[in-house]
Each structure stands twice: as C-alpha cells, then as structure tokens.
Design brief:
Blueprint lengths: L1 H22 L4 H17 L3 H8 L1 H4 L2 H19 L2 H28 L7
Helix pairs in contact: 2-5, 5-6
Length: 118
C-alpha cells in the first residue's frame, strides 16, 4: 500500500507540472522553482509534513520535498544555533541530495558524449 500511495502522490505532482507546461507560458525552470518554493511554503504552514508522512517517497523525492527539507533544516538549525542556523541549516539538511546530484551529473557527463542540437 505504501508503494501505491507514493506512486499516486508523486504522479499527481508530475501531472500538475505537465499541465503547467502544456497550459501556461511558464518555462520549465520557473515551474521547478515554483515547486521548491511551494514545498517551503507548505512546510511552513504545516501541510507538507503530514503529506510526507502519509505518502513517503512520493512526497519527499520531488522538488517540493527538496523545498520542504530546506525549510525544515533551517527551522531546526535556527532553534539550535540561532541566526547562524538560517544560513547553514538548509545546506546541511540537503547535503546528501546535493552531493548525489553533483556526483551523478559528473558521472553521466563522463560516460556519454554530447551531441549537437539538430
């Protein structure tokens, strides 16, 4: 059942993104930024945590989950370290995902040759 919940929630995030791409003039980059910001906002108002607990990876893996993790890390770090935590908490809480993205990006760039656009 956990897999089904994750699939449904993650799929709904993808459907929403595809609708935004197809029906608006927003660029994909702006949609991705909107997803991260919405994760931060939904986390701040207390809506995202119950969704993430219910849907698991379906809510924590997409970009909204990244925004939620950033905000959660900042909140925890501010509680521990004060104002300095506002600068360090987000990076600390998302360091694993950022490191994986960089590592995998470099690995793919080294394994495959780029092709010119036609």
């Amino acid at each position: 059942m956990d897999y089904l919940k994750a699939f449904l929630v993650g799929g709904l995030f993808c459907v929403a993104g595809q609708v935004l791409i197809d029906k608006t003039k927003l660029t994909p980059a702006r949609i991705l930024v909107a997803y991260v910001v919405s994760g931060v906002v939904l986390g701040a108002v207390g809506v995202y945590k119950p969704l993430a607990e219910w849907a698991g990876a379906g809510a924590t893996v997409p970009l909204t989950g990244f925004g939620y993790s950033l905000a959660k890390g900042v909140k925890e770090a501010v509680a521990e370290k004060g104002l300095l935590g506002a600068l360090t908490g987000g990076i600390t809480s998302t360091a694993g995902g950022i490191a994986a993205a960089i590592f995998l990006g470099v690995a793919v760039a080294m394994l495959f040759k780029p092709k010119p656009k036609s």
